[in-house]
Amino acid sequence: MSLEGWINWVISWAYTPYGVLALFVNAFAESSFFPVPPDLLLIALSLLRPSWALGYAAMCSVGSVLGGVLGYFLGLKGGRPLLERLISEERIRLVERYYQKYDLWAVGIAGFTPIPYKAFTISAGVFVLDLKRFVLISLVSRSARFFLVGLMIYLFGETIKFYITKYFDIFSIAFVVLLIMGFVAIRFFSKGMGRKDETSTERSME
User: What per-residue confidence (pLDDT) applies to 193?
Assistant: First the structure.
């Protein structure tokens, strides 16, 4: 199934009696192995019931953090071989450099942006980073991301509902583009950092 197909399938759960459970499962799974972030399902559910938007955001945040903990322990128990099976070498190099530069705040960056979050949750376990700080930073960054969405819909209700509903297809396409850009950014920066390492190595040998 294509990424767009996965996204449409995830959104369709909003119109079933299992929408809230699907949101939790989506948020949980995306933090360790699933390709589709839960934002669109969160938006779809919140648009159907704006008064529940903050509750949906809380559910999404809890599911995402718990999924991140699973990703952490997968990395901790599976080690580098598991990471290399799930994530490309380019992403691994980039994530390592993010951790070297920003420490665990790299998790916060990934938690709030289109950069694939699971690359950082699994890597955090592989590199045996502090679990308590990992959970705390994940909770802050993921909650900030999801509550921003929920709060906008909760506060502006029907007004924002009209625009998002009217342009939901365009919004979905834009989301896919941002998601792909997150992967492209990883590829671009990992290559750039690789060149810097090669240059530094060459200079040190001169």
Answer: 46
